[in-house]
Amino acid sequence: MYNLIGAGLIVIGAGIGLGQIGGKAMEGIARQPEATGKIQTAMIIIAALLEGLAFGALFLGK
Amino acid sequence: METLLNDFSPGLFVVSLILLLALIALMVKFAWKPILNSLEERESGIENALAAAENARKEMQNLQADNAKLLKEARVERDAMMKEARDITDNMIAVAKEDAKEVTTKLIENAQASIQQEKQAAIAELKKNVAELSIGIAESVIKKELSNKTEQLELVQGILKDVTLN
Amino acid sequence: MKIAQKTIKFLLIASITFFTSVGFASGSDKKHDNQNDGGRINTKEEVETYILHHIKDSHDFSLFSYTSDEGERKHIGFPLPIIIWSSEGLVSFMSSEFHHNDDGQVIVEKNGLKFAKIHSKIYEIDKGATSVSFDETHHATNAHKLLDFSITKSVVGILLIGFLLLFWFSRLAKQYKTKQVPTGFARVLEPLVLYVRDEIARPNIGEKHYRRFTGYLLTVFFFIWILNLAGLTPLGFNVTGQLAVTGCLAIFTLVIYTVSGNKEYWMHMIWMPGVPMLIRPVLAIIELAGALIIKPFSLLVRLFANISAGHIVVMSLIAIMFTLKESLGVVGATGLSLVLSFFITLIEVLVAFLQAYIFTMLSALFIGMAVADHSEAH
Question: Where in the cell is it found (chain A) (predicted)?
Answer without folding.
Answer: Cell inner membrane; Cell membrane
